[in-house]
Amino acid sequence: MRSDLVVIGGGPAGMAAAATALAGGLRVTLLDSGRTLGGQYWRHPAPGSVPTGDHLHHDLTTYRALVDVLDAHRVAGTLDLLLSHHVWTAVADEDGFAVHVLDRSGTAGSEVAEVIRGRQLVIATGAFDRQLPFPGWDLPGVFTAGGLQALLKGNGVAAGSRVVVAGTGPFLLPVATAVADSGARVLAVCEANSPTRWGRRVGAVVRSPAKAIEGAGYAVALARHRIPVRTSTVVVAAHGQARLEAVTLAAVDGVGRVRPGTERRVVVDALGVGWGFVPQLDLAITLGCRLLEWVDGNHVAEVDAGQRSSVAGVLVAGELTGIGGAALALREGQLAGESVLADAGRPPATAPARLVQVRREVERLRAFARAMAEAHPVPQAWTTWVQDDTVACRCEEVPAGRVRAAVAAGASDARQVKQLTRAGMGWCQGRMCGYAVTCLAHEGPDGPGDRRPVDGGPTAYAPVERLVATPIPLGALAAEEFEAKGNSAM
To answer: Which residue among 97, 194, 419, 485 is least packed, with the fewest CB closer than 10 Å?
Structure first.
């Protein structure tokens, strides 16, 4: 059966897009790899697991309202909700799109490959943590900041009892407060940038009072737990034998170079590090959506005012158009749903006056997101923290020194480094190391911290096409091909 719309991603953007299209009378298929709706933002334990509590979530009223709407349409038969379905590719066909999925809703080893068809497509696949290597980052006990939060939301588990949260950006604050609320002791939040970077961006904060109130709430929570926030400070090394035992903190200057004599060793058993997020663009790239550079060093999908991409029938919403948080993702999803209705010749589901407000809200939240990215960049000289024996690509165990040697031997970009070192050829296909390897490949003649320009602009990492967006068993793939040929082999 072909739906009017297939939505890929069950987070805030995908849920809002599906709910809007359903309200306008369309038949929708909503796909998500998780076992519950909500994405990473509204991540919940799997059905039957021990509840983790509402205190770990924001805006649950909106989440529950969306779940109720979607559930009502599922019961009515206008929504096909397919959870534990992993989309591995999507292609245009004669009447819309064919979305190839792996159904993992059954028992382990019983995966089934299927094809879901729709006339229009909304991609709302979210983002993942951006990481930078440093000595010891591959020790057990070192997590992404999002990993710390996922353990709490999905399992009610604190990663350790003595924790440091480090990196850059406001996301560090809710992670630190959630860890502290769980009973762990958070020794410090280490913010790599100086708060003075917000000085020229106060206007964006003034125009987004809800963001300012949210930040003030975190400040109160940090004070209640007596968690110090150390600005212009980074973790330059993690130490331990079988697992993490300590970290070295150091103060840095405006470009990220360590200030000599400021190093300090702190005993910890867990570390969460976050340097922003990377949009999950695999499907958008495969479909041919045009990308553009964004201020945070990422490429993002180019969309119009209605979230339409450069490919007819493909709309993109949420973090894929620029990292901006759940509130922005919800509104972008709503606009995407309205565009789907308009393109299908249906009247809008949102009242005209309210739709004007939504568009203004999107503009305001995008301005705040841009200001946030400008105030919390990855430090330019971060590669000065990386020693030659530091693992840069964990999948293929490629040290930074081998990357630098490849550059010295004549490699001019990350692709040539990949060919010479295998960095980026492992299980994650460069998702974790791609940004870091590209930065290392563009160190200038004066060594670490001296950055050569990247062709096409300041962006350090351009995503590559991955025809298989998620691992799929060859048996399931063969079975799908067998069914597509109508069992002709019989």
So the answer is: 485
The DSSP secondary-structure symbol of 345 reads T
Identify the helix (H) or strand (E) that includes residue 437.
Answer: helix 434-441
Q: 287 and 362 share a domain? A: yes
- Of 256, 275, 294, the last residue of a domain is 275
Report whether 143 contacts 271 (CB < 8 A): yes
Alpha helices in 125-261, H assignment, sequence order: 145-155, 172-181, 202-206, 209-224
The domain that holds 392 is classified in CATH as 1.10.10.1100
Cα of first residue to Cα of last residue in the chain, in angstroms, is 25
Model-level pTM greater than 0.90? yes
Q: What pLDDT is stored for residue 157 in this prediction?
A: 85
Inter-axis angle of helices 400-408 and 434-441, to 10 degrees?
Answer: 40
> In this prediction, what percent of the chain has a pLDDT beyond 70?
93
Taking the CB of residue 489, how many other CB atoms lie within 10 A of it? 6
At residue 133's C-alpha, the angle toward residues 439 and 441, to 5°, is 20
Query: Based on the domain organization, do 29 and 118 belong to the same domain?
Result: yes
36 CB neighbour count, 10 Å cutoff: 18
Q: Distance (Å, rounded) from C-alpha 461 to C-alpha 478?
A: 34
Does any domain span residue 315? yes
The residue out of 337, 372, 407 marking a domain boundary is 372
Q: Residue 187 is part of a domain; what is its CATH number?
A: 3.50.50.60
Angle among Cα 246, 248, 252 to the nearest 5 degrees reads: 160
d(CA 365, CA 257): 32
Q: Which H/E stretch holds residue 80?
A: strand 79-82
Instruction: Decide: 224 and 233 in contact? Cβ < 8 Å.
Output: no
Q: By residue range, what is the domain housing residue 430?
A: 382-451
pLDDT in tens, 46-89: 776 666 666 777 888 999 999 999 999 999 999 999 999 999 99
Q: Which residues pair with 428 in a beta bridge?
A: none
- Rounded Cα distance between 175 and 187, Å, is 13
| Structural domain count of the chain | 3
